[in-house]
Design brief:
The protein has 411 residues and is an alpha+beta fold. It has nine helices and 25 strands. Strand 7 and strand 8 (100-101) form a beta hairpin.
Length: 411
């Protein structure tokens, strides 16, 4: 395992961590009215585009919570909507596997006291708090009923997670026999918990490698999932949220049918800075700026990408967040046409050298060092990628998550 690099040390004893958790809790109390905001993001999915809508349909979506608590709320987004969407009813409950809900855990979701709510185009909306004890690592089921024609559906397209679709209103039923399934999250962008015990919370911000492309369906083996499990196993009370979008770029928006969402620079406020309780962000982006620049344009230089990093770091620091940056993984042999080139490899090396030596961030995670083929360092290790020489497999994500946990554990 490669060394991790940070600018100061995180306390390693249980007692010192407890003291730090208390101090962080006191820091969270520094809002204007003197009352600490107790909410912490425990799961997220970054919305990327809009797809076909639904009518007289229940969507049942399953999410893995990185940190537990006794009170939660759900965040919905219609940021890419062109017309209002009406949610006729909604509920939450603990998963019993598949589309089932564990008896005794089903709770109605309300919005301003009402079970129905209209999502305005471009808007985000949080539910009322719900009393439901959710353990760390629990799978939460969120059900939404679309009575009328929803219009276009704001979504995260490639979630590596099965969602269930059935005609009619079934939000208050424990069992559901789906008419169909998909692998997207629709409108559901976050779950937050009231948990003062969480010592710190990190947003993993990036592209498809953060999103988890190439990981096994429904097994929660994306590297942010592994990071959350690793921290919990080390006795660290932490929340980890996934703010990755497949195809995302630091400097350019998505293009055509590839989705990819708005650029990292333009979505940073919504997907990171607006998340409650965050203390850290782990940035891993840039490979698509290089690879897509050759195929879709615009071409960008290593210096352009570095300036993009610096802007994101400054914005995070102004919001009181500490920033770790991950080195860009090798990608020679990537199956996407013209993705890799000698020019792009030289730019990757320049960017990674900057990441390893700059003092602009608070530390870095050398993903490149632990994922590359020792005998051919411009390629991913054959045992660690999913077959396309770009995206890790479960073993690769396990290695990345463990390394990220060591980096955060040493801050």
């Amino acid at each position: 395992m490669a060394p991790v690099h940070t600018s100061r040390h995180w306390p390693r004893t249980t007692a010192s961590r407890a003291v730090l958790a208390l101090l962080l809790g006191l820091c969270f109390a520094s809002c204007e009215d003197g009352v600490r905001d107790p909410w912490v993001a425990t799961w997220s999915s970054s919305m990327a585009d809009a797809g076909p809508g639904f009518q007289d349909t229940t969507l049942r979506q399953v999410v893995r919570l990185s940190a537990g608590g006794d009170v939660l709320r759900v965040r919905l987004s219609h940021v890419f909507g062109s017309e209002p969407t009406r949610i006729g009813a909604a509920s939450v409950g603990l998963s019993q596997g598949g589309a089932g809900i564990e008896p005794g855990t089903l709770r109605p979701l309300t919005f301003g006291g009402s079970r129905a709510v209209e999502l305005a185009p471009g808007a985000d909306l949080r539910s009322d708090p719900v009393d439901l004890t959710v353990p760390t690592g629990a799978n939460l089921v969120v059900s939404l009923y679309l009575a009328a024609d929803s219009g276009d559906a704001t979504r995260h397209r490639n979630a590596s997670q099965t969602s269930f679709v059935v005609a009619g209103n079934h939000v208050d039923e424990l069992e559901l026999v789906p008419d169909e399934t998909n692998r997207s999250f629709h409108w559901l962008t976050g779950v937050e918990i009231d948990s003062p015990e969480v010592a710190f919370a990190v947003a993993a911000f990036g592209d498809s490698i953060t999103e988890g492309s190439g990981s096994s369906l429904d097994l929660h083996n994306r590297y942010p999932d592994v990071l959350a499990r690793e921290l919990s196993a080390r006795g660290v009370s932490a929340a980890v949220v996934n703010a990755g979008i497949g195809g995302n770029r630091v400097l350019s928006d998505g293009w055509g049918d590839i989705g990819a969402g708005p650029s990292a620079s333009s979505r940073f406020e919504r997907d990171v800075l607006s998340q409650p309780g965050l203390t850290h962000v782990l940035l891993l982006e840039g490979v698509n700026d290089l690879g897509m620049g050759a195929t879709l344009g615009p071409r960008v230089s290593a210096e352009d990408i570095i300036r993009g990093y610096e802007t994101l770091i400054r914005r995070a620091h102004r919001s009181g967040l500490r920033v770790l940056v991950g080195t860009i993984l090798s990608f020679r042999g990537a199956t996407f046409p013209r993705y890799w080139s000698a020019e792009n490899e030289a730019a990757r090396q320049t960017i990674n050298a900057w990441i390893r030596t700059t003092t602009r961030h608070d530390g870095f995670v050398d993903f490149d060092e632990v994922m590359r083929d020792p005998g051919d360092p411009e390629r991913l290790d054959a045992a660690l990628h999913s077959g396309d020489y770009l995206h890790p497999n479960d073993a690769g994500y396990q290695r990345m998550g463990a390394l990220a946990a060591s980096a955060l554990d040493s801050l």
